[in-house]
Amino acid sequence: MIVIPAIDLKEGKCVRLEQGLMDKDTVFNDDPAAQALEWQRQGAELLHIVDLDGAFAGEPKNRSAIEAIIKAIAIPAQLGGGIRDLATIEAYLSLGLSRVIIGTAAQRNPDLVKEACRRFPGQIVVGIDAKNGMVAVQGWAEVTDISAADLARKFEGFGVAAIIYTDISRDGMLQGPNLEATRALAEAVAIPVIASGGVSRLEDIRNLMAIEKSGVTGVITGKAVYTGAIKLAEAIAITKGEA
What we know:
Layout: E1 2-10, E2 13-18, E3 21-29, H1 32-41, E4 47-51, H2 52-57, H3 63-72, E5 77-80, H4 86-95, E6 99-102, H5 104-108, H6 110-119, E7 124-131, E8 134-137, E9 142-147, H7 148-153, E10 162-167, H8 179-188, E11 193-196, H9 202-209, E12 216-221, H10 223-227, H11 232-239
Parallel strand pairs: 1-4, 1-12, 4-5, 5-6, 6-7, 7-10, 10-11, 11-12
Antiparallel strand pairs: 1-2, 2-3, 7-8, 8-9
């Protein structure tokens, strides 16, 4: 299992939200590139970037900050938020991103995911965000009547590199991940699943490792590593059997 620190961008700054609410944000660093370098220094092997403004607007909004991050780090990075078409995917990958994450557009247009996987093999990730088990889109502002598992099954056989599963009710709340829902989703598909939302202590990392055999291959952590509730280097050490 890999531990993936998150950088959420809002108006060019590194922030964290509570339950995806844009008016409940905390600025943790005015310099996202510097923050990315810090996570790299602490041993991160992959960086998770979210363009929050882009997620709500439906189009890229923090390109300069994203470019600065990519230029600063040597480790791979994946990006989500406002990615709705092939042109945007190609533009972002050309900047040097390793993977892009399709969220809202994946629910509304599964064929986009299929075509993107065909054109950019190994570089397409699907983001599935859920509230009470139902898929939420448009920066989590809209909850659909589709279950997370049903949506995930639509992408079987496309060549999706991973599914990032976020339980909105846990995100930014430091209440622990939704282990049952994460495991159920991972067991519903053959696509690797990355858990996101709620990680608050090292024990949460150990608990997720216990369901790794179900297909949970990674965990994204944001607020916990910013507040110091979790030391990133310690979390990584646990996944490598060094702690």
